[in-house]
Amino acid sequence: MPTPPASPPPVRALFRAAVDPIRAFLALEAASGILLLASAIAALAWVNLGGAESYEAVFTYRLTLGAGQALVTFSARALVNDGLMALFFFVVGMEIKRELAVGELRTRAQAALPAIAAMGGMLLPALVFLAWNAGGAGAHGWGIPMATDIAFSIGVLRLLRSRVPHALIVFVTALAIFDDIGGILVIALFYGHGIAGGWLLAAGAVTLGLVVMSRARVHHAAPYALVVVGLAIPARARTEAGTALEDLEPPLTRFIHFLHPWVAYLIMPLFALANSGVDLRRLDASQLTGAVAMGTATALVLGKLAGIFSFTALAVRARLAPMPGGVSHAKLLGVSLVAGVGFTVALFIAGLAYPSHPELLDEAKVGILGGSLLAGVAGAVLLRLTPALGATPAAD
User: Fold this and answer.
1) Contact call for residues 149 and 180 (beta carbons, < 8 A)
2) 245 falls in which pLDDT band (50, 70, 90)?
3) In angstroms, rounded to a whole number, what is the distance separating the alpha carbons of residues 81 and 275?
């Protein structure tokens, strides 16, 4: 009797075969960093392989919302940079609040060392940048190399977890959170468009209302709707008076769980795609080695390295805090290099620093991409050369 033909696989099996690899990738701890890198490479390839006109056409496409006096027109790039990135800063604000309230920064001792390291990692890169640009047209970009990109840097460290103890990853995460705070303050104080008194008062009133709601234990998500708003959302679970029932997932956690995938896997890669498209063919040697490009790259690699390593080593030597995980100075040197990967916030500040100087903005982007790549690769190589966890380390 002939063998009957095999029945086609069920739809569910086909669906799982297609979806499971995507799910496995998204579960990878370095996935958001990989997507960011892929988006930046895609933008560079798009522009430099003959698609410069279509790239600009897509991201300068004009969108219109509203009607009559409320009509607003903006570009697709502005929608990403000024609209969607507000959600990025909202999530940053919530993550800062969670770490301060119930996470790795909840005590003064836990917060001391990464705060000191972040101070060095912000101050020295700004000084290195100004050493190249003081008195020049690019001096206003001194804030570009100050922030560490959490997704990229932690992604690199997770890939090297056989060499990097968990305590050191927590240290870098906390450091990045602190310089995110610093980066947000720098944006607000130095890269804004002046102070609008009426809007400032309105924002203050809304913020005060949100703080009152948080103190009153308002746990419904609807009233909370970036950074300062994120700081107002309750971080602890609610306990019903007179009962043992608890809301096991506080509002802050619910917001982060809901928004984080959208920010990490859509908004940040889209931001990288919209802002990394530098046409390298139109840049001459003087721009590739210009003060802004070289100042940015040098600040991210050497400024971050010197600032984080020296401030951390001095704090440990002064017994202000112990070395994270008791690691060697070689491992600290490696993570200090990796923390020089500045991308998302660096690109954001570059756009604010040079809004009417596209040639300086292109220089800054070249410095950000080149410096971040060099810092990440050099840090990874150095950490790979250090002893594996559990091995007997060589003397410092």
Assistant:
1) no
2) very low
3) 9
Entry pTM: 0.74
User: Could you give the CA distance from residue 334 to residue 383 in angstroms, rounded to a whole number?
Assistant: 5
DSSP label of 302: I
Q: Domain 79-385 sits in which CATH superfamily? A: Na+/H+ antiporter like domain (1.20.1530.10)
Q: How far apart, in whole angstroms, are the C-alpha atoms of residue 163 and residue 234?
A: 36
- pLDDT tens digits, one per residue of 263-309: 888 888 898 898 888 888 887 777 788 999 999 999 999 999 999 99
DSSP 73: E
Residue 31 near residue 263 (C-beta atoms within 8 A): no
Nearest CA-CA partner of 302 in 151, 143, 118, 121:
121
Amino acid found at 24: A
Domain ranges of the chain: 79-385
CA 30, 35, 37, 43: dihedral to nearest 10 degrees? 180
Q: Name which of 50, 37, 55, 87 is nearest 272 in CA terms.
A: 37
